[in-house]
Structure formats: C-alpha cells, structure tokens
TrEMBL record:
Protein known as: Acyl-coenzyme A thioesterase THEM4
High-level lineage: Bacteria, Bacillati, Actinomycetota, Actinomycetes, Mycobacteriales
Topology in membrane: Peripheral membrane protein
CDD domains: PaaI_thioesterase (cd03443)
Principal location class: membrane
Keywords per UniProt: Apoptosis, Cell membrane, Cell projection, Cytoplasm, Fatty acid metabolism, Hydrolase, Lipid metabolism, Membrane, Transit peptide
Domain Thioesterase: 124-194
InterPro entries to which the protein is assigned, alphabetical: HotDog_dom_sf, THEM4/THEM5_acyl-CoA_thioest, Thioestr_dom
A biological-process GO annotation: fatty acid metabolic process
Family statement: Belongs to the THEM4/THEM5 thioesterase family.
Organism, scientific name: Gordonia crocea
Length: 224
C-alpha cells in the first residue's frame, strides 16, 4: 500500500482547493476568535446562554454534511500535499495557532505566531507541551523541506526560560542525515530571547521508504 493511499488520495484540483480555502479559511478564523472569546468572556449569564445556543446551532449546521473523524493529509491533482487538519498549521484547524512556515531552498525554516491565552500553561506562559508541539512541527517541516522527511522518532527539548504568551518565533534546520534518520535542531524565541531548544530524529518508516522521492516532491510553501 502506498503512503499516498494511506494518507488519502484526493481527486480535487488546485482550483477546488482554492475554493475550499476561501470558504473554510475565514470560518476557521471566526472559530478561533470564538475560542478566545469563550476563554476570556465576562459577559452576563443570559448572553453566555444565548451564545451557547448560537454555537450549538452553528455546529448542527456544519454537521449536516461532514467527513469522518479527521481531515487527513490530502493530495491534489497537482501532486501537492495539503495538511489542512494539522494541529499546528492546518488551514481548517482552529486549534492551530496557526504557524505558516517560510523556508530556504535547503531546508531551514521559520514561522511566527501570536500565542494567546488558549495556549497557557503556567500563568502568563506558554504550556510546555505546546512549546514541544511547535518544535516537533518546525523540526519535522525542516526535515521535509530539506528533502529527507520522516516521522518523529525522538524529540528532546531543553526549556531554558519560560515562554511568555505573545509573539513567538520558531526556527529549525537540518543538521545531518544518517541513512533513514534526519537529525534536526530548532529553537523557540520570544522578545526575551531563546526560550527552548530542541533536537529531533526524524525517521522514514521502513514501509514507505520506497516513496521517499515522491514525498519530498509533495511539499508546498506553508505546508509541513
Ligand atoms: C511518513 C513520512 C512523513 C510524512 C509526514 C511529514 C510531515 C512533516 C511534519 C511532521 C511534524 C509532526 C511529526 C509527528 O507528529 S510524527 C508522530 C509522532 N511519531 C510517531 O508516531 C512515530 C511512531 N514510530 C514509528 O513510526 C517508527 O517506530 C519510526 C518511524 C520512529 C521508526 O521507523 P522504523 O521502525 O521503520 O525504523 P527501523 O526499525 O527500520 O530503524 C531505522 C533506524 O532508526 C532508528 N530508530 C528507530 N526508532 C527510533 C526512535 N524512536 N528514535 C531514534 N532512532 C530510532 C533505528 O535504531 C535505526 O537506526 P540505524 O540502525 O539505521 O542506525
């Protein structure tokens, strides 16, 4: 079975993807705003109850037609991957901050995001698991952009100081490749300086090694 088969073949054209992005991208942004509002609201009880009814109505509307349990990674007729369900950068995932990676031709990549209260751990600071989440994606994307994609085998994070909620930059670059293993390093940086450093080993699972070239061709700016 091919990896593409595993991830889900999608017969959609780039134009169809564009139309879906135009429709669901703004919805995702609105839901993100709703999530922030849910967290921080100090509205009157009646207004909260009314908002809840409206949210339930919206969910019922969206569920009138829906897919399975996850959006998955979809390939278009152009051979490009769209990871719109991805928890860090997915265009249709309101949980994603979202991060949009820029990368050099040889792999180093970076992204910036504003992390608000939705990502809080210790008071005023980003949750350590969220920091690891961002680094996992950044390192995995850098391996991908460098042409040696893989699944996270090992991720080691050193938290140097608390990461304040607010603007965050994540950077990553491929250090070296040893056989099927890509060694990647990265950092999380805020205006206070480096907050966390990571080293990761990304491994192409044996059952998809024959698809390495096909996979490496399938990335798209902003996709990981
Ligand atoms: C699928 C391709 C990726 C596409 C997605 C791109 C998205 C990009 C963004 C992603 C961002 C988000 C990313 C996510 O969220 S990925 C989600 C989190 N990660 C997982 O779920 C991975 C689960 N584990 C596996 O799939 C396999 O066990 C892996 C892939 C890890 C190994 O696979 P396989 O079992 O087939 O490998 P092998 O037995 O032939 O061993 C090969 C070599 O590797 C060495 N080794 C083995 N395990 C580990 C380990 N844990 N650490 C260090 N080294 C390890 C081993 O000693 C050997 O070394 P050597 O003897 O050759 O020296």
């Amino acid at each position: 079975m091919s990896l593409i088969g595993d991830f889900g073949v999608d017969p959609m054209t780039p134009e169809q993807f564009d139309a879906e992005a135009a429709l669901f991208g703004p919805l995702t942004d609105s839901v993100r705003t709703l999530m922030e509002a849910t967290l921080m609201s100090e509205a009157e009880a009646d207004d909260v109850a009314r908002a809840r009814a409206l949210v339930d109505e919206a969910a019922a509307l969206l569920n009138t037609r829906r897919g399975g349990i996850a959006l998955g990674t979809r390939w278009g007729t152009d051979g490009i991957r769209r990871s719109w369900g991805n928890a860090v950068m997915g265009l249709r995932n309101p949980v994603a901050p979202p991060l949009e990676f820029t990368h050099d031709d040889d792999g180093p990549s970076w992204a910036e995001a504003e992390l608000g209260g939705l990502y809080e751990g210790p008071p005023g600071l980003v949750h350590g698991g969220v920091v690891a989440l961002l680094l996992d994606q950044a390192l995995g994307s850098a391996a991908f952009y460098a042409g040696s994609p893989g699944m996270t085998g090992t991720l080691t994070v050193r938290y140097r100081q608390g990461t304040k909620l607010g603007p965050v930059r994540v950077e990553a670059a491929l250090d070296r490749v040893e056989g099927v293993k890509s060694f990647v390093v990265g950092t999380v940086i805020t205006p206070d300086g480096v907050c966390a450093e990571a080293e990761g080993i990304f491994i192409l699972p044996r059952e998809v090694r024959h698809l390495a070239g096909e996979l490496a061709q399938s990335f798209h700016p902003g996709e990981g």
